[in-house]
Amino acid sequence: MNYTLKFMMLLIGISSFAQQPPHERLPERGTHPNQRMEKMKALSPEQEATLWSKKMTLELDLNETQQDQMYALILEKAKTRDQRFKNLPKERPTKEQIYKMEVDRLDQEIAMKKALKSILTERQLERWELMENKKSLKIREKKKKRLRK
What we know:
Strand content: under 5%
Structural class: mainly alpha
Largest sheet: none
Radius of gyration: 24 Å
Helix content: over 70%
Number of helices: 6
Oligomer: single chain
């Protein structure tokens, strides 16, 4: 009897911990999953270029001239991206429009890489490519998580 009572108490204790509900988000972090992206969208292209160039300065150890060149390059990219998002059609784009947008995006990527090759050293360029690969892997993982839900 004594052993059964102890066994039942142990079983109840273990099962109560095993069935904990998932933790909710902290209220200060917000409920929107892309809250950081929403804040970034609210920034002007100049502010965004300043932040991004400072982050790249820290990551890649850029000198003053490289910082200025990166700022100009990033500012141009931010302005074109803002303009592109403002000009998006309200309805779903056709296949031709999707193709054109993808070609434009790839052309901009190629131009960005050429500009980076002229600005950065070989070592800095390798580090930048590594950062970009890590970023794209994170994005793919997030997409996979969303598709599983």
